[in-house]
Amino acid sequence: MFKILLIEDDVTLYNEIRERLSQWSYDVYGIKDFGNVMKEFTSIQPDLVIIDIQLPKFDGFHWCRMIRTHSKVPIIFLSSRDHPTDMVMSMQLGADDFVQKPFHFDVLIAKIQAVLRRVYNYSLEQQIHLKIWNGSSIDYVKNTVQNEAGTIELTKNEMFILKILIEHVNQIVRREELIKSLWDDERFVSDNTLTVNVNRLRKRLEEIGLGQYIETKVGQGYLAREEVGTE
Questions:
Q1: Beta-carbon contacts of residue 198 (< 8 Å; ≥ 6 apart)
Q2: Is the pLDDT of residue 11 over 90?
Q3: Which of 9, 48, 64 is nearest to 31 (CA)?
Q4: Exposed (0-12), middle (13-18) or buried (19+): which is 83, by Cβ within 10 Å?
Q5: The pTM is what?
Q6: Where does the record place the Response regulatory domain (predicted)?
Q7: How far apart are CA 193 and CA 134, in angstroms?
Q8: Do 91 and 198 fall within a single domain?
Q9: Residue 130 neighbours by CB distance under 10 Å
Q10: Cβ contacts of residue 150 below 8 Å, gap of 6+?
Q11: Would you state the pLDDT for residue 124?
């Protein structure tokens, strides 16, 4: 089931769209705090964002820019504004489509399906390799971690360890489990090599302010911590 984040402050319209999309088996989320959209975006990790231009506090263009700094998730603008510059601006900011209000619901559904089909049919493998963690974008293919503080590149072993820890976020992963996972992946490591790699991983993450999120649990293993409301 695809998750859709609908950034719309008109409660009546939001409820109508949510109800209609649920009939198509889409899981629709709304925004509680329009002053902190990114916090809810990273928590939900939607497969598609539908966003109005005119919103409380900051407009849709602002949040589109913010989302694009962290994610390539498809974005559809939904707005009553019909000036060509608004459509051009949305495309320049990285939006995938623009739907003008008032709209026929079948048109919106068709555009949603087209965008999801285009993005996820052709780049599903790439989608799997992208992750948001504590406000940072992790690319498992490029072995990079990026946030506002900068970008770091990890070794394959370091990224592999980070990936396993994030898959079990806020849970302790025993050292034996990490070693077994690395061994099964033909990355032959000993207990001492694991310690060295985790220490290097934490040191690299410290460069962009993430080092404290990898915790050592003495006698047990390691834990990737995630702050409440982020992902």
A1: 161, 214, 216, 222
A2: yes
A3: 9
A4: exposed
A5: 0.52
A6: 3-116
A7: 27
A8: no
A9: 18
A10: 207, 208
A11: 46
Looking at the structure, do residues 29 and 112 belong to the same domain, yes or no?
yes
Domain that holds residue 18: 3-123
Q: Considering the chain, what percentage of its residues have pLDDT values greater than 90?
A: 42
Question: For residue 102, is the peptide bond before it cis, meaning its omega torsion is within 30 degrees of 0?
Answer: yes
Whether 90 contacts 98, CB under 8 Å: yes
Q: Beta strand 130-133 with 150-153: parallel, antiparallel or unpaired?
A: unpaired
Per-residue burial over 86-107, b = 16 or more CB atoms within 10 Å of its CB, e = otherwise: bbebbeebebbbbbeeeeeeee
Q: Do the domain assignments include residue 59? A: yes
Tokens of 91: 């495309």
| Per-residue model confidence as pLDDT tens digits over 61-78 | 999 999 998 888 999 999
| CATH number of the domain residue 160 falls in | 1.10.10.10
Whether 145 and 78 share a structural domain: no
Return the amino acid letter for 137: S
The token pair that represents 124 in the structure block: 């599903």
Tell me, yes or no, whether 116 and 210 share the same domain.
no
What is the residue-wise DSSP string for 63-113? HHHHHHHH----EEEEES---HHHHHHHHHTT-SEEEESS--HHHHHHHHH
The angle, 0 to 180 degrees and rounded to 10, between the axes of the packed helices 60-70 and 37-44 is 40
